[in-house]
UniProtKB/TrEMBL annotation:
<dbReference type="Pfam" id="PF15739">
    <property type="entry name" value="TSNAXIP1_N"/>
</dbReference>
<dbReference type="InterPro" id="IPR032755">
    <property type="entry name" value="TSNAXIP1_N"/>
</dbReference>
<protein>
    <submittedName>
        <fullName>TXIP1 protein</fullName>
    </submittedName>
</protein>
<dbReference type="GO" id="GO:0005737">
    <property type="term" value="C:cytoplasm"/>
</dbReference>
<feature type="domain" description="Translin-associated factor X-interacting protein 1 N-terminal">
    <location>
        <begin position="94"/>
        <end position="205"/>
    </location>
</feature>
<feature type="coiled-coil region">
    <location>
        <begin position="276"/>
        <end position="333"/>
    </location>
</feature>
<keyword id="KW-0175">Coiled coil</keyword>
Amino acid sequence: KVSSLLSHRTSPGSSSETANCQMHIRTAKPTLCKKQKALSFQLSARGQWSTWPAFTAEQIVLRNHKPCSAPERAPSNEQALLTIPKPHHLEQLESYLKKELQALDLTKGISQELRLQPYREIFEFFIDSLKTYKPLLSAIKNEYEATLAHQKETIRALEPLKAMVTTVSEECTQQILALQEKEKVEINTLKQEKQHLLKFIDNMKEEKSSLQTQTHMVEHLQLSVAEEYTRYLQEHSARKLLLAKLNEMHSEQLDMKQHQVQGGKGEDVVKLTLALKMARQDLTKAQVKLNAMTAEYGDVVPRRDFDSLEKKYSDLLQEMKTLRNDFDQLHEEYGTLLEIHRETAEERDSFCTQLQEAERSCTPRPNWAKCSEAIPGGAERWGHLAEGKSSDELVDVLLEEIGMGVLKETNAFCGWGKGDEVPVYLRYEGEIKNKNPTKKDVVNILKDIWKEKAALDQQTGKQSSLPEFFLSYLQKKHGDASAMEWSYTLYEYTRLCRSNHIMSSFYEILTGKVAEEQYHSQNQLISNLQKELAACDSSSSGFLPSEQMALREAFPLKRRDAIQELVNASRFSLDSTDDLIDYRALFEEDEEGNPGPFVAKLRSQYISEKQEYLQELKNSLADVTEVNADDLKAAFCRIDPEIDGQMLDTYISLAYQVRREHPDQEVVPVDTVLERLCAGDVRRVGPSPRKESTTDFEGE
């Protein structure tokens, strides 16, 4: 029983302790059985159990009275109960229990199980001795054992959950700490921005107080100037009066001297008196006129002072207006910054929520390094294939590698039949042998096909159909028997090799997804650039500095960032710090026809610029679902004003797929028009009006 209880109680993590405990119990079982027999013999010697204390059985007080128990009795002398000795068998049981407990090793993790075993044995002694109550006591014991076993099972089942809860709690704690660190950085940034704005506000307040101080100073200066002017005016008037008095006194002195002289000479007194009277009248008139002028021009300041003060006042007023405008502008900018800060905080909260949802719902990024184990060539070749590619492009590369592997293992193809819906170069019934060429062989064959077709088109003066020429070329080169085998083989190889430009472009033109003019246009673009770079190389050394690459002259419609991307692509293979670029090496291809980064960037920009051009055309057409030729011409003229009539007619014919002169009445859905234009050679003729307006604004 002890072994079974220990097996229920112990967990998987404590297997060693359980084994030790079980070994201890197995070694202790013989001793316990002998002790149990001796004890049961001693207990059965008398044939009955002793009551203790014997003479106080009638005086026991049942404190927790139950319906089936005896009625309460009055307590007797408790001190007398304590002096009565215990029964001999009770002392033996307690002594046995004490020895067993002392003999146990309680230092182990399952000490409680070991402590329970002696009590269980004592209880079994009682059950065996009390024959009358044995069924009831056995049932009680079994129920307790079942309850203990159930509790052990429950504890053992909850232990993994406890470990899982601990793990989840640690993960949540780490996530919370990471989010707190992230928020801490953002909060510090916002606090710094807040401090900067507060300093800015304080500076504006100081400037405002400075302006108010200057305004008060101007008013004070105006009052001071008015007071000084009044004082100067009073002094001027007093000086004039003083001069008048001095002149009068001087005149009197002269008169007295003249009287003395005339008296000595005997001049006429009447004549002198009349002259004096007339002089006094003139003096009175002059004094009246002087007083009138003083009264009239009392508030007038000198013109020079007035002009100086007026100029100073206008300068201060203009400066105050300028400062006021600057303050208003700064105040508006401050409000705008606050609004931007609020929107930024909302966006940050939104992005945090989206990040949390993405972390919960999005699938993890695949480990692309595992693909190196399944790709021929190992990690080195996979690293070369995956360099600089996105996840979507890596999926295409992986599918291409898988398809090429399956294609190499395929010995024969199944013919498509001879129906009219089957292309002319695939019309065959039955199995077709796979030629299993290498990529290099396929690229060389395709280059030879383009070369032969260009010679034929130049000789006949018109462009031939690529599917028909493809079949005739193979029949001429390999005969009718092997032509269809090579046709199916080349078709499957070009269909699967999407990363190779020569093979993918041949497949798209062969199946009609892209017009042949687009392929020739890209090649002509690259050829023209080669000629431009060769013309810039006056020494024919094959090297040019990056600033003399003449990319701006060769591509006047490209943006600055596109030109910079081409310059960066041209520097991709530089091994030294020298700025000289081997422009001839930029156009070289490997044995499989793959170009370098520079030519690849040129072709990708050609596609992106065409898509951008068609997107502007779609935006110019607004929300219409169908469009006729006139509306389409008007839209082309709006987005490309320098387009000529011949190019416009070419685009209209491509969009409506008609050769007549008046396709004006035909209405085609906008999506169909854009799809047809995307398949052809469509590009911008002149600069964009939006770009010109932006350039003019920057120049102003």
